Write a sequence for this structure.
């Protein structure tokens, strides 16, 4: 009798373990079959920089006026393409703590002529696309950190890192020359956006922080590493804001930001297994 009871208990345990294993396999199978979240990366130049007074970037570039008729026509085509792609959420480089202000601005926004509206990518692209999709909200995700470029150069001079300073000057001049030629050309706006979103440009963006800025300062002085780490911190915080805003039903999102931010996000997403990047060229060429 005792042996029979023991056999029954063993059989019950085996059936229970088998059921749990079947359930685990079913869950794993479901997870492997679920599609990753698609993230459309849209790196851009800042439209407001057309007016040099508004240019807070290091580079001095003669940007095109996005309010011109030709550029407006191209923006409309791009917006229609992204409308067809249908992102569930659009994230923009706007202070996240001012989300209520962005909500109010977006909700009350209405226009029949974008050439008479603000010269910035949030209005000209994000609002344009979101209104076409009848989105109720645009998502702010910017988080500012310290970026003391002037202190970096001062400490490099103090450390007599003149070769590094020269390297920085040469690299900035090269980038300025490349971008000025690009904007002076007759290339369509889409080609300019492709430039800001290609792997080479993204690598050059990150390279400046890791390979140049990070070395700045005397031994024991980490002004360069601090600047680079603050840039990484800013983008990690922004990425965290995006991650927390994504909901279960979202299948696609779009991130619109300066190309340097997008370069960082591409790296973060590559380490996020249930997310995958979609490039602008893929959408516009469809």
């Amino acid at each position: 009798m005792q042996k029979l009871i023991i056999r029954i208990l063993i059989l019950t345990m085996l059936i229970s373990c088998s059921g749990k294993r079947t359930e685990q396999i079913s869950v794993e199978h479901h997870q492997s079959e679920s599609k990753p979240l698609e993230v459309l990366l849209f790196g851009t130049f800042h439209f407001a920089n057309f007016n040099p007074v508004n240019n807070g970037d290091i580079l001095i570039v003669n940007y095109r006026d996005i309010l011109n008729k030709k550029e407006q026509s191209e923006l409309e085509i791009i917006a229609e393409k992204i409308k067809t792609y249908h992102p569930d959420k659009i994230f923009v480089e706007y202070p996240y703590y001012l989300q209520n202000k962005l909500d109010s601005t977006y909700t009350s926004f209405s226009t029949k002529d974008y050439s008479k509206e603000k010269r910035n990518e949030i209005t000209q692209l994000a609002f344009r696309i979101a209104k076409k999709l009848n989105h109720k909200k645009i998502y702010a995700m910017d988080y500012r950190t310290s970026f003391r470029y002037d202190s970096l150069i001062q400490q490099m001079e103090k450390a007599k890192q003149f070769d590094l300073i020269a390297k920085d000057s040469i690299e900035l001049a090269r980038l300025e020359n490349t971008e000025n030629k690009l904007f002076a050309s007759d290339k369509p706006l889409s080609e300019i956006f492709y430039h800001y979103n290609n792997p080479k440009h993204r690598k050059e963006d990150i390279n400046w922080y890791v390979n140049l800025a990070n070395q700045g300062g005397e031994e024991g002085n980490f002004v360069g590493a601090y600047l680079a780490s603050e840039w990484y911190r800013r983008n990690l915080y922004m990425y965290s804001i995006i991650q927390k805003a994504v909901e279960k039903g979202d299948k696609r999102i779009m991130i619109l930001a300066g190309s340097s931010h997008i370069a960082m996000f591409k790296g973060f997403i590559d380490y996020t297994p249930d997310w995958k990047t979609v490039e602008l060229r893929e959408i516009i060429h469809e």
Notes: Residues 22-32 have pLDDT under 50 and may be disordered. The two ends are 73 Å apart (CA to CA).
